[in-house]
Amino acid sequence: MISLQHLNGSEFTLNADLIQQIEETPDTKIVLTNGKEVLVKQPRADVVARVIAYKRQLRTPAPLGGDG
């Protein structure tokens, strides 16, 4: 999940796995796999960077707890 802002500034969280396409028209438009479109404040490159960071986080193993 990635955090973004609508054009009006309200924040929301988007499931990055549902992103099909990202374009700048000049606003950044995210097209989801269900066909829904979302306009966001962040530039396309920023959205891509957030998706990459999210995907990397999923692949990083959680540290083992050492309480004993």
Task: Please tell me what the overall shape is.
Answer: elongated
Poorly predicted ranges: none
Structural class assignment = alpha+beta
Q: Kindly report the spatial arrangement of strands forming the biggest sheet.
A: 3-4-5
CATH top level is Mainly Beta
Distance linking N and C termini: 33 Å
Residue share in helix? 10-25%
- How many whole angstroms does the radius of gyration measure? 15 Å
What value does the average pLDDT take? 93
Taking the sheet with the most strands, its summary is: 3 strands, antiparallel
Strand content is 25-35%
CATH topology: OB fold (Dihydrolipoamide Acetyltransferase, E2P)
Describe what you observe in this structure:
By secondary structure, this protein is α+β, with helices and mostly antiparallel strands. It has one domain: OB fold (Dihydrolipoamide Acetyltransferase, E2P), CATH 2.40.50. Helices cover 24% and strands 34% of the residues. The chain has 1 helix and 5 strands. It has one helix at residues 44-59; strands at 2-5, 11-14, 19-24, 28-32, 37-40. The strands form 2 sheets. A 3-stranded antiparallel β-sheet has the order 3-4-5, with helices on one face. β3 and β4 form a beta hairpin. It is elongated. The relative contact order is 0.21. The mean pLDDT is 93.
Protein topology:
Layout: E1 2-5, E2 11-14, E3 19-24, E4 28-32, E5 37-40, H1 44-59
Antiparallel strand pairs: 1-2, 3-4, 4-5
Features:
68 residues; alpha+beta; OB fold (Dihydrolipoamide Acetyltransferase, E2P); three-stranded antiparallel sheet; two-stranded antiparallel sheet; 1 helix; 5 strands; 24% helix; 34% strand; elongated
